[in-house]
Predict the 3D structure of the following.
Amino acid sequence: MTNTAELATRIKTMDDGSFNKFDSSSVTEFVDLMQIYEGAMYEIGTKLEILDNEFQVRFSHNPIHHMERRLKSSNSIIEKLHRKDLPISVESIKDNLFDVAGIRVICNYRDDVYAVSRYLSEQSDIQVLRVKDYIRNPKQNGYRSLHVIYAVPVFLTSGPHYTPVEVQFRTIAMDYWASLEHQLRYKSDLPDSQLAQHSQTLLDCARSLQNVEVQMQSIHRDISGAPQEEEDGAPQAPSEQ
């Protein structure tokens, strides 16, 4: 986990000076909050590792290919608050940002995505806050992934602190596609005409990959005893009021 002193130093030496308006106690409070987010991220990560190990024992199959953990940088947090026209404060972060801590879970098959997310959601100390299923309902550009925001307790001397963690579940093929699309969208200086051409090609690739995944999933179902997920296998978030 990140060393608190290192995190505090990074905050105080930020180039944009966004934290200059904070007094020392506010900076300390922010550092403490980030430690809680990091604890929540590793708590979810451990639960996922345990599930993956159980699948290997029960079904001789590891559903999780690998995981990537990410704690939003202080710069990114402040930029997002700015975009949302929100005050820069610890309370504002806690009340409005749910993706400060994130884990990307790369699974082998679509069944694995829904099985792992469902078993995680059913754990008694986990709360499902929000679900966005871009696998069954892909974005217009072809992006597919299952996004779930969980709240998990981080136990401190003051008691449990339920903290949100955004988990993105996707298959290897979905991740492969999303990585290339991200590079095209945010890290390329291509002219608009070429950008549009590549975007259309990626959309065609997304459809092709989906078809290939369905076929490979069918083969895997025949040779594996791992759980097969039905159409209602996705985690369910509480109804919005």
In short: The mean pLDDT is 88.
